[in-house]
Amino acid sequence: MYTYDTLDQAIVDTRVDEFRDQVARRLSGAMSEDQFKPLRLMNGLYLQLHAYMLRVAVPYGTLDSRQMRMLAHIARKYDRGYGHFTTRQNIQYNWIKLEQAPDILAELATVQMHAIQTSGNCIRNISSDQFAGAAADEVTDPRPWAELIRQWSTFHPEFSYLPRKFKIAVIASDTDRAAMRLHDIGLQLVERDGQVGARVFVGGGMGRTPMIASEINGFVPASQILSYLEACLRVYNRHGRRDNIYKARIKILVHDLGAEEYASQVAAEHAALAGLDLDPPAAELARITAMFASPAFEEDAPTQVDRSDPDFAVWVDQNVLPHKRAGYSIVSISLKPRGGIPGDASADQIDVMADLAERYSFDELRVTHAQNIVLPHVATRDLPALWTALREAGLAEANLDLISDIIACPGLDYCSLANARSIPLAQKIGERFGDLGRQRELGELKLKISGCINACGHHHAGHIGILGVDRKGTENYQLLLGGSGAEDVSLAKITGPGFSEDGVVDAIEKVTDVYLARRQGTERFVDTYRRLGMEPFKEAIYG
Amino acid sequence: MKLLTGNDLSTGDVIWWTGRDWSRHVEDAADVGDNGESIARAEEGARAVNVPYVIDAVATADGPRPAHIKDRIRALGPTVRPDLTLKPADPGAGDWII
C-alpha cells in the first residue's frame, strides 16, 4: 500500500481548509451556486435527486482496513448508515449535508483519503485490476504505475480544465479485469526483452457514443510513460472540442483525426517534450514500488481445504480464484445479494470487511469496477473461517460473474441525470434467476444496467446490457446483447424496440433460453451470441 | 398546476414552496401559477433554497402529485429503500410514485 509522505498529506489537508472556507462563503451568501458548483464538484460533492452526494476516491480501488473503517464511520455519522461502491472503484454517499462536507473531508484526510478527482473535467481517479499484486498472470504489479499517474495528474495545472472528464486505467496482464479499452487511455504493462513498458490504447469510452480504444503505441518504455501520457493529454487539450459537450471526449477527437494521425501528433509532441525532463527519476518509482511489495507470505502454506460443506464448496468454486502464491487465494465478496442493491453495503458490513481484511488478507481490500470487494491475499486454509464470517454478515453470495452479479448505476432512485430506475430492475432479474443452480448452469454472464445514456452502469459492455430511457414520461428499457469489457472487448447491440420493466425481464429469460438450447460445448453466453448472431435471440424475443 | 421545488442549501433536503415558506412535504406545496420564476429568484437570493425550479403537477384529493416520476421520487424518496423515504411506516407509500 502506498503511504502518504508529508507533501501528499499537506495537499489533502490544505484542500480541506480551502473547501471549508468555500463552503462557509457559500452558506453566507458570499458565493452564488454558479460560482460554488465547480468548486464543490472538484471536491466530489454533487447535488443529486434527494440531497448532496459525496463521491470519495479510492485510488485504483486499493485500501486498507483503517481506511475501510473510516468509510463505515462516515456512513454512520454523516449519512444514513450505508455507502454505494461504484463502477469507478470509488464509494459514494447519498445523503450528505453541505454544512458537514468539510468535516467529512477532514476525517478522510486523517486516513490519507480524499474526494479529489472524482468529478469535473480533470483526470479522474485512476482505475486498475482489482487482482493487482495477487494475480498469477500479471507481468508486474500495475499499482505503482497507477500511483505514479495519480501523483502526476493530481492538480496538474495543464489538465485541470480539460474539454471533458478523462479516465485512465492501468493493467498488467492479458486478462483485462478493468475494462481497460473502454477508457480514455488504457495502459497495458508488458515485458519486452526483459524491459517493462506499456501498450497504449486511446479513445475508448462508453456514454452516448461508445467506442473501443485504439492502440497507438505497442511499447512505450517504462521510463517514458509519464511524458508519453503528457503528450497524449496535450494533443487532446489542444484539439479536443470545447464547443459541444457531446463531442468533447478524446474518443471523438481520435475518431475524427484517425488513430494514426492522433498517434503521429502524440509522437511529435512527445519528441518536443524530450528536453523538459518530465519523467520521474528512477528513485521515485523505486520509492513508490517498494510500498507495494508483496506481503510476507508463509512458505509451504497448505493448498487444500475441506470442501465437505456443499455451500462452502460452491462459494469457493464461484468466488475464490487462484493466487500467484501457492497456498493463497483471491476472494471476491459479492455485494449483490438476492433482493439487494448492487454495490451497497451497510456501515456494519463495511466494518466486517475491514476486520476480515485485517485478519485474513494482510490488511488489504480492493473495490472492483463490478461493484464488489476483493480480499486479495487470503491463506487458503483460512477460507472456511472467512466464509463463515462473511455468511454471518450477509456477504457470502456465491454469484461472482453470474447473471445476478449485476452492475447497476443508482438510476432514477438517486441520480438526477437518470431517465429510469436501474436498481428495481436488477432486483427483479435477481429474483427471476434466483436459483443458484440455474445461474451456474448459465455460467459467466455479465449483465449491466444503466438508467440513462451516460452509461455509468456499463450497459454497452454487458453480455446482456440494459439501457433505461424515458418514453413520454414512462420508464422503458432497451435490451442489448453481445458486449464485453474484458480482453475480448466488444460493444453490445440493441435488440429492437424497448420493454416495460417486467417485459425486459421476460425478454432476458427468452434470450437465456436460446443460449441454453443452442450453446456448444463450454461456450459462454457471449460466445454463443457471437457465433449465432442477433437473429435467433431477436426471434425469441419479438417472435 | 405548477409547483416550485429545490433543495435546502445547507442540508440538501428536497423542499417545496408552500406559498409562504418551504416544506419537506409535497402535500404542503402551493400552486405557483406563473409566479414560480420570480419566487425562485427571490428565495434563492435569500439563500432559502438552492437550484429552484418549477414543475408540472396534478391536484389530487391527497394533495399535489408531480407529473413526472422523477419528481415523485424526489418528493417521497428512493423506491428501493422505503425505510429512507418520508413515509417509512407506510408500506404502500411507494404506490404513489408508480
What Rg of chain A is obtained from the alpha carbons, in whole angstroms?
Answer: 23 Å
Tell me, what is the CATH class of the largest domain in chain A? Alpha Beta
Q: Could you name the ranges of chain A where pLDDT drops below 50 across 5 or more consecutive residues?
A: none
Biggest β-sheet of chain A: count, sense, barrel?
5 strands, antiparallel
Overall average pLDDT of chain A = 97
Q: Largest interface, per-chain counts?
A: A-B, 28 and 23 residues
Question: H/E element string of chain B?
Answer: EEEHEEH
- In total, the number of domains of chain B comes to 1
Give a brief rundown of this model.
By secondary structure, chain A is an alpha+beta fold.
Could you characterize the architecture of this molecule?
The complex is a heterodimer of chains A (543) and B (98). Chain A is an alpha+beta fold. Chain A is 36% helix and 18% strand. Chain A folds into 4 domains: 6-109, Sulfite Reductase Hemoprotein, domain 2; 127-290, 2-Layer Sandwich (Sulfite Reductase Hemoprotein, domain 1); 310-392, Alpha-Beta Plaits (2-Layer Sandwich), CATH 3.30.70; 408-542, Sulfite Reductase Hemoprotein, domain 1 (2-Layer Sandwich). In chain A, strand 14 (364-367) and strand 15 form a beta hairpin. In chain A, helix 15 packs across helix 17 (535-542). Chain A is globular and about 60 Å long. The model of chain A has no long low-confidence stretch (mean pLDDT 97). Chain B has 98 residues and is an alpha+beta fold. Chain B has one domain. In chain B, strands 3-2-1-4-5 form a 5-stranded antiparallel β-sheet. The longest helix of chain B has 10 residues, at 36-45. The two termini of chain B are 20 Å apart. The chains are: A alpha+beta (543), B alpha+beta (98). The A-B interface holds A 26-27, 29, 33, 47, 49-52, 80, 95-99, 341, 412-414, 416, 418, 421, 423-424, 427, 473-475 and B 7, 9-14, 44, 47, 50-51, 67-70, 73-74, 77-81, 84.
Q: What characteristics describe this protein?
A:
heterodimer; A: 543 residues; alpha+beta; Sulfite Reductase Hemoprotein, domain 1; Alpha-Beta Plaits; 4 domains; 5-stranded antiparallel β-sheet; 20 strands; 36% helix; 18% strand; B: 98 residues; 18% helix; globular
